[in-house]
Amino acid sequence: MSLPVYRLWSGGQEKEGTEEPIPVENPATGEVFATCQSASAQDVDDAVQAAHAVFVKGTWSSSAARAQRADVLEAAAAKLTDALPELIRLEVQQTGRATREMQAQVPSLVRWFRYYAALLRTDEKPVFPTMGKLHNWSEREPLGVVVLVTPFNHPLLIAVKKLAPALAAGNSVILKPSELTPLSSLRLGVLLQEAGLPAGVFSVLPGPGIVTAAALATHPLVRSVDITGGTVAGRALGAMAGRNLAKFNAELGGKAPVVVFGDADIEAAINGVAFGAFVASGQTCVAATRILVEKSVFPQVVAGLERKARFIEANMGRAPTDGACTMGPLVSAKQLRHVESLVNDAVTGSQLATAVVGGARMTSTAAYDYARGYYFPPTILVSAEGKNILDSRVWKEEAFGPVIVVAPFETEAEAVALANDSEFGLGGAVWTKDLSRAFRVSQQIRAGIVWVNTHHRNDPSSPWGGVTSSSGVGSENGREALHYYTMAKSTVINYAAPEDAKAEDWFNDGGATVRYG
Known about the structure:
Layout lengths: L4 E2 L1 E3 L2 E3 L3 E8 L4 E8 L2 H17 L8 H17 L1 H12 L3 H7 L4 H13 L4 E2 L5 E9 L2 E5 L5 H14 L3 E5 L6 H12 L7 E3 L4 H9 L4 E7 L2 H13 L3 E5 L4 E5 L5 H13 L9 E7 L3 H17 L18 H17 L3 E5 L21 E5 L9 H4 L6 E7 L2 H8 L7 E5 L3 H10 L4 E4 L19 E2 L4 H7 L1 E9 L23
Parallel strand pairs: 1-5, 8-9, 8-11, 9-10, 11-12, 13-14, 13-18, 14-17, 16-17, 18-19
Antiparallel strand pairs: 2-3, 4-5, 6-7, 7-21, 12-20, 15-16
Helix pairs in contact: 1-8, 2-5, 2-7, 5-6, 8-9, 10-11
């Protein structure tokens, strides 16, 4: 039986790629269930040229098309809603994520299209208090061709977070999804065209980063590159985009601290940490990975987290398509090896850590054949007797898997110092009933997003981005994202009466004083 073949979406239609096709694997079974066409440098140039041509034409990019853009974004939300069953199925199949996660996440994506449609309809143009008889206002104009590079962990969510403001601003957009999970992103091309998006405005070009992403980032007609991914890849693409002086936005690595104070609602904190740590098998940039617990409640919190982890592991013995499955596999063999390496280094290599639960890849049982996929259980690490886990690699490096380090603290100042003991600064959380402490500590944690008594909340209106170079530059969501995808254009109109024209004669022969500025 031949496998389904997914083609590039370029210039408003499906096209054959000229690179070697990409096999798309189901991480739960290790089976290749589809192939995807891959874009070469020539495919990239064709798509960029077409995108630039439609941008210059102005059908989508002109200020006169603002209302049309709002209509299309609202129609896209409706099309996305109609396609939810298919999109959820694809997300589960290509990521290995549990159906219960995708059924909660994917329907929320319509909010981004609706939010930016509303911004288009309600945005205002500022008028400036310029001196003299001048009327000066500014408006936001699109950049041109912009590139979005998205990762494997949230294929649709991260694509839509970037795509909605980029399209709302009037740009032509080219999306380069992860070669591990390209299929749901390709469906966006058809859905947006059905919603009324003009051909050529949006293209989807899967392919390996070293070929496709590099060709996009270095193309002279590309005016912006926006990536969510690893720190190494982000820095590489940023350097490429910089050579063309293209704008650059990046949401990169994370190692989120969670501070649990003794006065917190401990049961709620345990539930919140478990969600933040183990949703998506820990493969999120804001995953709760460094859990800092006040000494007085440390045993209680560790016991509660162990209970949650064992419950999750007990219900992983189901296919991700089973609604009762609690957590799926990691996305690939490579990712599994990386997580294993960090855990093994901490537990058996340096012997700095003890695994309270988990700690090794899951082996097959009579009930479920874990060996077919890339399964790693929820893992809780604490300091080994007489050792300090804070000296381990797993404390410092991003695992991108279901692995947490739990460490005690005694004072608020110590908690803040431990929370900031990282090169990353993307997300963090504080659990306490003390309002003053919540404010104080959240202000001191070096992160672009800090949650109090919750974790991993995300809304189209709420800025989302890191504050250190390892976690990226710029921000997503809100008006900031719409402004990122635009440039400010200032218009100045002189409404002085004709008899005042002499004030504009710089080189008059009477020596009269003229204006400056």
